[in-house]
Amino acid sequence: MSTATAPYGAKLDVSRTPRVPMSRLIKVELRKMTDTRSGFWLMVTMGGVAVIASTIFGIFGHDQDRTFYNFMQFSGAPQGFLLPVLGILLVTQEWSQRTGMVTFALEPHRGRVLWAKVLGALLVGVAAFAIAVAVAFLATTVFGGHDPYRDFGGIDIVKFGILQVTGILQGLAFGLLLLNSAAAIVLYFVVPTVFSILFNVIPALQDSAPWIDFGTAQGPLGDTGNLTGTEWTQLAVTATIWVILPFLAGLWRVLRAEVK
Amino acid sequence: MIKLEGVTKRYGDYTAVDDVSFVAQPGRVTGFLGPNGAGKSTSMRIMVGLTPPDRGTATIGGLKYHDIPNPGLHVGVLLDASAQHAGRTGREVLALSALTMGLKEKRVDEMLELVGLTESESKRRVRNYSLGMRQRLGIANALIGDPSVLILDEPANGLDPAGIHWMRTLLRGYAERGGTVLLSSHLLHEVEMIADDMVLIGRGKIVKQGTKAELLQTAGTFVKPESPEKLTAALAEAGIKALPSGDGGFRAECDPIVVGRAAAAAGVVLAELRPAEGAGLEEMFLELTADDARESINTQGVSA
Q1: Where does the record locate the signal sequence feature (chain B) (predicted)?
Q2: Structural domain contains residue A35
């Protein structure tokens, strides 16, 4: 305005600036998962424990137990436990470490950042799942007992995958809802446990447990064979209560929250 | 250009930002000055869409921040140098921003060099950074996208005198190339040294704004006597109104010669006698600060 020689005017010329593509936002989120010591060691721990657990089981397990299916339970256990924590930290670091002030200044459409986090976490989940299956396959080849694939069906892979993915999504949802690492991690582990105890101890609640308690509804995913129609429905209902609703509430909160 | 129009933000009964309007022009450094808690940071968060205002609009170059695609390439933002992941290295912090904006990794090295962070410092985790180093990292992060507008909240905080000098040169060059620079501070002298334009804020309200020359130009005289009591009496005798103006001095709304005559007539020894350039601004600023300190007592008694 007052400076006629200035290369920049009073108006910003954004006509040649495309917005940040989703693929790049996802890349950024993937990088954020491993560029701190905690993130890095979380990943290493998952891989390490999977190998160690499978090896120990391979050496000390009974011959008839050393099946591919059981090896998968061992190689997948650390991820089932730790991937949700990864999901929680991915969301809560923006608040606990206050990096949100930079993240949401660089991409003010917060919903896009959150979807990048969800998709990034799912990509890691799928990769971790593939690694768990690979480790189980290797362990079966090395340590497998008699006819190690006898109790394994294709549906088991699907069920195993569902268990992992819902864990990550639940972690993300709790992170979004609480926006605090410690609170989200503690509640993620404590609340479902307390619920499971309540629903399995109080007789009046026992019948409704598979319809309300996520842990109870997930039970059949850990057994061999397909789920019944009712069991699938129960899984969907409890997932809505424990994953989708907290996720939506958290999303609503983050889109409105002040970032300080 | 940054433009705020009637921006208001309330937290319950407390009005953090009250009907704030001002413009930061391109090619100039605008100093946003006010005591702690005056509403500077809230105003800046509103500019970049991190805090939704209750009323009013904030635009940058005619656009709402939300509508600027890849905003890091247009607006450089430093709101809080400590708002970084303590477990990331300084280099990684910049690399994440560069990746988001779609810049080459080379840009990270350029920025580290520009703000004077060495190779080994850049590989340390932010946890081990001094406030001054965090501030430099924050400035690098704001500049990495080569934006035309800069919004910096207390950028000089934690910098040593050499660092402040460096930053002043950097921002001056930036404005001379046509960029818009808005920086906040709670220190009058800091802003005086860097800014072309000033916006004074206190208790959420703009109390004064204009060019530095306009604001510093105040009529009157600054006088510092050996004995304040004797001078006060002498000035009262001569019918000259004078107000204490910090550091044992006074400010009078008349020419220095008039004050000098009154002092001479009463035989008062003077240590200083000069035109009161900038004293008005300093008084206003001190008043703002003092009002803020009293505020909690007053508002509780009055507004209840």
Answers
A1: none
A2: yes
